[in-house]
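[audit] Reproducing an earlier prediction to check determinism. Same input, same settings, fresh worker. If the tokens differ from the archived copy the diff job will pick it up downstream; this log only records the rerun itself.
[audit] input (802 residues):
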Amino acid sequence: MRPLQIACLAVAMALLTCCSDRSQVSRIIWFDSPATFFEEAFPLGNGRIGMMIHGDPFNDIIVLNEESLWAGGPVDPYMNPDAWKYLDEVREALFREDYQSAERIVRNIQGKFSESYAPLGDLYFSFSDSGTISEYCRNLDIRSGISTIQYKLNDVSISREAFISYPDQVAVLKFTASDKALSFGTSAKSLLKFNTSFSGTNYYMDGLAPVHAEPSYRGDIPDAIVYDTVGKGMRYRMIVSILENDGILTANDEGFSIEDASEVILLVSIATSYNGFDKDPGLEGKDERSLAEKILSSASLYSYKELKRRHREDFTDLFDRVEISLNYSSAPDLPINERLKAYTAGSDDPDLEALYFQFGRYLLISSSRPGGIPANLQGIWNHHLRPPWSSNYTANINSEMNYWPAEVTNLSETHMPLLEFIERLSITGAVTAKTFYNCRGWCCSHNSDIWAMTNPVGDFGKGHPVWANWSMAGPWYCLHLYEHFAFTCDTVWLRDYAWPLMKGAARFCLDYLVEGPDGYLVTAPSTSPENEFLDANGIRGSTLYGSTSDMALIRGLFNKIIEINRFLDREDELINEVISAIDYLYPYQIGEKGNLQEWYHDWQDRDPHHRHISHLIGLYPDNQISPTETPDLADAARRSLELRGDGGTGWSKAWKINAWARLLDGNHAYDMLRAHLTYSDPDPATQYTGGGTFPNLLDSHPPFQIDGNFGGTSGIAEMLLQSHNGEIHLLPALPDRWSSGYINGLRARGGFTVDQKWSNNELLVAIIIPDRSCSIQIRYRDQVKRFDVEAGIPLTINSLNF
């Protein structure tokens, strides 16, 4: 155990199986009633398979997903080969300040919509309903990824346990009763095309995803769901296998029933025909049936005890890397929904804030594992045939926000699905760059999907340019490549994988930049994602040249290209182009209100409180603006946040937590965290519409959107540790409300693990463990000191040496 690691309280073990003494540990989420809505259910996952556990004693539902089960097939990146021919016309209109004409013409530079993440299906369990339920409790232990439901049916104690194993790639369900009083029936249904069958001790569901699913926001339109008739489309197989059963089994192709059992153990194996982003899953897909059987056969070699041990060891190895306590508080003895309501009403609950931080880490472990598909807008938990925003990769903030906590909260492995996805984007994105913009390199636009779609969306001119015609996802994704290197110092990975991708994105930016009316290099056409301006004549628009967010993303990429090239010490013609261009990029501008301008000109926002703060990308997640290095720009960013206000959707509030933390204003960041944790009713008829948090702690846009969870977790980390300015900044934005506490195991850029303990709002001690021998600069408040450190040897920081 590292120095300063504080042992878990002894009561933690009891919480693995029941709800007693639950007030002492920031890892248990519990209810005293079943879930009525999806947003009250418990999410389980192993990165690939997702489940939502509802926990009804009589008629239970488990919602099933698999990360690769999407509508559609490989995208045709040549879908609009002449789109680039409209660029000059758009630019001419923009540079004569005719924004309305530019907005009309730019619609020609659009392609298809993305495809949708598909729901696999639901497992139904009909339990005996003859009796009275008492002592009901369902909990989720986020440290181990195990859900437990306990209650009494008359005088019989019933328990249901569920987890999804990453080592063995199956879901495991265990039902027990205190005597042979366990009786239930099981069946499965799907919103997709499917059929079921039973053989031996296995229940099968085989299905097919559509080749196209229209985004839900397009409404009730013809052919919203399209199935193919010649073999295209993603196939899937689910197997529910009865591993152990001491009751009486009866079954047919519709389902199976078990009577008079005391213990039943089920394994759920799932596989799809997905065979890569560039292969049709129907015509060139994998054999999903044999894959599911192989997974099941391998897992069946283990006993339930062994499956659980292997799962727990894997999950806790990741989760236990970070420990947190805020004000050494205890959780109130309330179900999580009531606790969240009390918090919304103004009660103090630092333990809830710590639990929420860890819940974000839990979700990342559960939805993103090496070798897999990146977490989408709903992670891996979706129950809609046409999910909100297609449950896709919305690349103008949301898919990036999903991975903000990956490195800093010591879960670097979970970052890999996104980092590996970027290479696939670069392949389709090279065609998009050429055919839509006549540029070298690669680019990516507003939306993507499992097929690595990169084109501007909008259905070939029907989409509004305010969201459809944004083209800067490449530089933003490259920031993730850079950050992974910054935290891990993996120079081989940087040189062989990340560097070529970053250079490709830079080539696109170099070609896309044009000289604007004032002689600066600008993007044209440009947007500030999903926001609109009022020009000098009061006319509403969204298409302009040189938006601040575009210029910040390109400047950030160019800065990092120059830095990495200096580190790798290589001769490269591209570097000369970047160095020549960077000084001519349109600089940040401070408006008459003292704000950081969002637009090239000092225009008004159509919606002054818009949810996006894209012009502040240079503040967070990038490091171009900071109070210590660029105080004037930091003051302007602060003014922009003040003008924008503290409202917004769930993910918007999460972004603002991070932004205020970067401004070293811990109290405002804390206020944003409290706003972010506003209770949102799961009933759509009565839910809070200004963002917030659902009873099961999932983020409320509304509807459910997981990026707010990840952004909230990264925001708390940002309040307690920063390392983006070439130094480790201890407790940089500690709010007054967290007067004492500790956090162990956070990671800092440069390859450091950091433990911190504080009391009375003062740092007591910090322990920094370096991965390598080097010299580091440490900041605490206004003091800065430099230390030489040796690999693996802890450096202790306290009042004696700082």
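[audit] rerun output stored. Observation attached for the diff report: The mean pLDDT is 95.
[audit] end
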